[in-house]
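Task: complex structure prediction.
Instruction: return structure tokens for all chains below.
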Amino acid sequence: MLIEKFNPLEDEMIQVLNEEGDIIRPEWMPEISDEEVLSLFRTMQKTRAIDSIALSLQRQGRMLTYAASLGQEAAQVGSGYALKKTDWAVPAFRELGMWLTKGWSVDKILQYWYGNEWGSHTGEDLRLLPISVPISSQFQHAVGIGMSIRLKGENDVVMAYTGDGGTSQGDFHEAMNFAGVYRTPNVFVIQNNQYAISVPVVIQTASKNLAMKALAYGMPGILVDGNDLFAVLAVSQQAVAYARETGPVLIEAYTYRMGAHTTSDDPTKYRTDDEVDPWKEKDPLLRVEKYLIKKNLLKQEEIEAMKEALEEEVMEAYRSIEHSSDTEIEEIFSYHYEKMTPQLQDQLDEYRNYLKGAASDGK
Amino acid sequence: MANKINIVQAVQQALQNEMALDPTVVVYGEDVGVEGGVFRATVGLQQEFGKERAFDTPLAESAIVGSAIGMAINGMKPVVEIQFMGFIYPAVNQIVSHAARYRNRTRGLRHLPMVIRAPYGGGIRALEHHSESTEALFAHIPGLKVVIPSTPYDTKGLLIAAIRDPDPVLFLEPKRIYRAFRQDVPEEAYTLPIGKAKVLQEGDDVTVVTWGAMVPDVQKAVSGIEELSIEVIDLRTISPMDRETIIESVEKTGRILVVHEAAKSFGAGAEIIAVVNEKAFLSLEAPPMRLTGFDTTFPLPRGEEHYIPSPERIRHKIRELAAY
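Output:
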């Protein structure tokens, strides 16, 4: 198994598909049908379509603060696709491609970013936790699910995500340590996109890479080209299999955040085009596109049609939530406990009475 | 069948009962497995239920609470121990940012049946950071319940209720009186309602509200005051607070004293008095009063007797309030 042989101290990076769209390590190519590749490419395109529409809506004042995934689609889709439906995914907040792979619906995703809690009501059967804004805190939940899986004798795996900045958190260390001690079925994915808002990874750590941190917790760590769909998928499939049978694994997916941290951020303040431009050639979609065209699985004009269809689909999802997403007053109160406390009931009643009075005052 | 047990034994028995009844209940934390807890609150559980259901963890409070959240998401009912309340702060992010919010932020899709137990309070001549009483920090957080029992009977009934509660409960145990006295307690499982105070003794002149380790001190103080008829209320749940019992009492007595061990400013006493002012202002015959710990760091053992209100001080304060 690649995972067990890999030595992160050597600072090598697993790559399968190069920038020209050629398979350079066929022995590592994941077992995947052409139909599956097409479907994953479509999911990556969908990720990009959601980003592009959300950003444009945000500029029109029709969307709130939004964190785009641009440039990280392979790391997200490739890792998420390695999970079974019964496996768990525990996101940070920039894993759009994985959310789609796992089945979070576009309208719910947009509803979340649009500012309504119902977006995180992801559905009864979906083993996907809600977004976690406090950095790396979600790793603990992933480990707890892993502990309960071992306890209950279940056979599922939990994949948790954080970023390069997240590795500086105490919770990252505590969770990795728990996972190592209890041999939980966890896969930890670090999307190393080089930045935590404006702070580059060299200010997060003096480690040569992030994958090597795994060694201190007694688990394998593997560094993969995060812009290479096939490499990410191959490594993730192995990691998931290893976690299911043996114990935890850490994956560092080496990628680049092409856009801003969120719509509230301006990356020109802390990085130059000279730095960003070379990453455009490493674009994760472009590589798969070249691969598909070379294999005659897709034509350029079909790609354009796919993009258009996806953007229309996303806009439709947005329209379905745009005018129906204002929060009902009672909902603000009624989900804090199984039953509303008398205090909450009083506050709700008082506010309602105020609104009623204000309405009858004509104010 | 009843057995005569103290508070720490009541904790152990509640855990033992629930683990026997419900295979999803697991108990873990630092030293809770092999040793059975530094206060022996989990003694025998690993022997009876195995290493899978009662176990030791690495020394990491955030992960203890954070992993319990994950366990609860996947259908378990974790009861985790924070060894001393003074060590809960590394876990505050997990408690406040996640445990308390999960039900609301998922609109009820995911809720967390989990209990965080922690011995709280001073008076046992302990080291630094071993005497904290910061229940008000947590009572302020929407989505949490904060329970503090004061007797073996209440401890067992409330802890079982906390374990069966579908939402997270912070269960603070008065370690100063862990072994102070024994009480007849049913051997079987039973519950007491969370959010209900208890009137320990009825009276007409003054209401004294207190909880946890201060309850026996208040009872001692009151027993030395023959000239007054004093109503004593054991709050038992800090949040959500039983306002009705307090208001009903103040409407009768017109005078209220809150006694707590925690620091005075912004403490739970402030909330109680605010509620009294809102709901029973016209019944008041004297300004509501507080007798509490000082707004200081809890002193090291050579000074702690000055910090915790003594029965003598409580008696003095009650007389001051009655004479107003």
